Amino acid sequence: MAPLASCDDFLEQKSPDKLTSDNYWRNQSDALAGLASAYSQLESFIGWDEWQEGRPVVEYYRNDMIQPGADAFNYTWWTDLFNFSYTPGNYALNLVWKTNYRGINFCNQIIENVPNIPAEEIDEDIRKEIIAEAQYLRAYYHFKILSHYKKILIRSEVPKSDADLEQADSPRSEAYDFIIADLKAAAQVLSEQRSANDIGRATKGAANAYLGKVYLYRAAEENNPAYLTEAKNALNEVIQSGVYSLEQNFLSMFDGSNENSDESVFELQLSSIKDGGAKYDMWLQYFMGAAEFGFWEEILGTDALVSEMKKEGKINTAGNHDSRLYETCLFRDDYFNDSANPNVYGYTYDEWFDPSTTKVNMRKYIPASSDNFYDRSALNMPLMRYADILLMYAEIVNEIDGASGTTEAISLINQVRAKHGDMPAMTGTSQAEVQAQIEHERIMEFTLEGSRFHDLRRWNKLETAMTTAGRNGFKGEMHYYLPVPEEETNTNSLITND
Predict the structure, then answer these.
(1) In contact, 230 and 176? CB cutoff 8 Å
(2) What angle do CA 71, 449, 271 make, to 5 degrees?
(3) What is the DSSP letter of 116?
């Protein structure tokens, strides 16, 4: 498999959406460069402004157990997301919409033009793989839009003129159909595993994982349990492949010491912009990290997050709370103040932090060594992990497979707890108790991984969670989804927020 052209090399050329098929889509090199561009829009990481103003603001600030750090209050369009006082003109809201549709446009160019590259100019297997990756990414980008925004435009082809940009929104059911079809097509072609030169590119497992997730979300939204069976089947394909396994060291997947681990199903490559593949240069730790470490501290946890993560007590194998608490959050606690084991970068917590502080900083996405605090070689961001596959699967079988499904779900939950939390088997055996445990485990596992708001929505628990968190700006269904950005409605008369 040929490696992708590096993203910076590609971006130094004219963008393919400015060119015709006659002068751009000529050979395999052009196809790979175009694919690098399609990957470049993942999670709005194409540029500093797009990322910092985009994904973390839109996804993290609507989480009931996360709050803005002090510097975030300098940006009203950030805190408007937190307070649910945003309007369609919100800058961050627009960026997430725009970058995902830009990614869709790049995918459509590949799907339309790569089949027409002369046979002598491209290896046939590589051609098929590139098209399948574009279908996977097109589904990924559409699913991001569908998950965040109430209305969606299905962009299935490259606009031929400005008039083609005028398009009405599609029924959400049609969007689900479109996304599912793309993921199924991609899964039929994509490789099970990637070589070292192709790490980060989509695989069959990634396509099936997102297929399962899409079906799970659709089942909840349309109240149709038939989609749970489809989700189960797709996720079981990943499990039965034997390609993935849980990592023992949970934090290592987020601190740069274990990138593209055996647990990684799909991971955003942020190591460097200079080597092969779709990789970007970003200081992820600056957004997440504590001010005491020299970072910007744009995001903090809440006391409620720590309380939830502590609620089972000190029952893990080391006599501590669940290990994921300490590997997700950084706060005043005996664990971090053990002078015999000063594990906050060689010091105790109180040697770093003012004794009066009660804040909850984040530990995910902070480098393993303080020597790398200011390294422009940024940390990767896992987008889909095997733990998510297991917990989604557990949730589904507990729901649809009766007593045997509940028993199977308990086994899967216990695998994740033991491996990542050093925790004993869960208590409780009923279907309701297992569902409650899954909801707890998803907080333990996926804080700062973008799923919390969507989980609460599909469990019909958003109102309760926001009320408990004191998020009084949240007004129920009005805030389940984001509005179409003003920039779109100003240029596309066929879509409105009515």
Answers:
(1) no
(2) 80
(3) G
User: What are the sequence ranges of the domains in the chain?
Assistant: 1-189+460-498
Tell me if 287 sits within 8 A of 298, measured CB to CB: yes
At the top level of CATH, which class does the domain 1-189+460-498 belong to?
mainly alpha
Is a pLDDT exceeding 90 seen at residue 132?
yes
Q: Which residue type, as a one-letter code, is found at position 180?
A: I
Instruction: Decide: 446 and 388 in contact? Cβ < 8 Å.
Output: yes
Q: How many CB atoms lie within 10 A of CB 64?
A: 22
Where is 324: in which H helix or E strand? helix 323-328
Measured distance CA(90)–CA(234) in Å, rounded:
36
Cα 497 to the center of its chain, rounded Å: 26
Rounded to whole angstroms, the Cα distance separating 251 from 261 reads 12
Cβ 217 vs Cβ 164: under 8 Å: no
Closest CA to 65 of 413, 456, 343, 337: 456
| Tokens encoding 99 | 């970058």
Asked if 16 and 106 count as a contact pair (C-beta separation under 8 A), the reply is yes
Specify whether the CB–CB gap between 73 and 80 falls below 8 A. Answer: no
271 — phi, psi (to 5°)?
A: -70, -40
Question: pTM score, two decimals?
Answer: 0.94
Helices (H), 114-163: 124-148
Phi, psi dihedral angles at 301 (to 5 degrees): -85, 170
**Is the CB of residue 224 less than 8 Å from the CB of residue 288?**
no
* Angstrom distances, CA of residue 85 to CA of 29, 236, 473, 475: 46, 41, 7, 10
Q: Classify the C-alpha dihedral 61-64-66-67 as positive or negative.
A: positive
What are the distances in angstroms from CA 242 to CA 254, 312, 392?
23, 32, 17
The pLDDT tens digits of the residues spanning 10-50 come to 333 334 444 455 578 999 999 999 999 999 898 876 655 56
Dihedral sign of CA atoms 394, 395, 397, 403 in order: positive
Dump strand ranges (E) for 254-366. 264-268, 299-301, 329-330, 361-362
Reference 283, options 352, 357, 375, 408; nearest CA is 375
Instruction: Report the DSSP beta bridge partners of residue 392.
Output: none
For the ranges 16-20, 165-169, 266-270, 477-481, the lowest mean pLDDT is seen at 16-20
Average pLDDT on 149-171 reads 93
First to last CA, the chain: 48
- The dihedral sign for the CA sequence 363, 365, 366, 367: positive
| Token output for 423 | 């925790």
Return all residues near 114 (Cβ < 8 A) that are at least 6 apart.
Answer: 25, 31, 34, 122, 127, 130, 131, 134
Tell me the C-alpha distance between 403 and 395, whole Å.
13
Instruction: Convert the pLDDT of each residue in 407-460 to its tens digit.
Output: 999 999 999 999 999 999 999 999 999 999 999 999 999 999 999 999 999 999
Amino acid identity for residue 260 in this structure: N
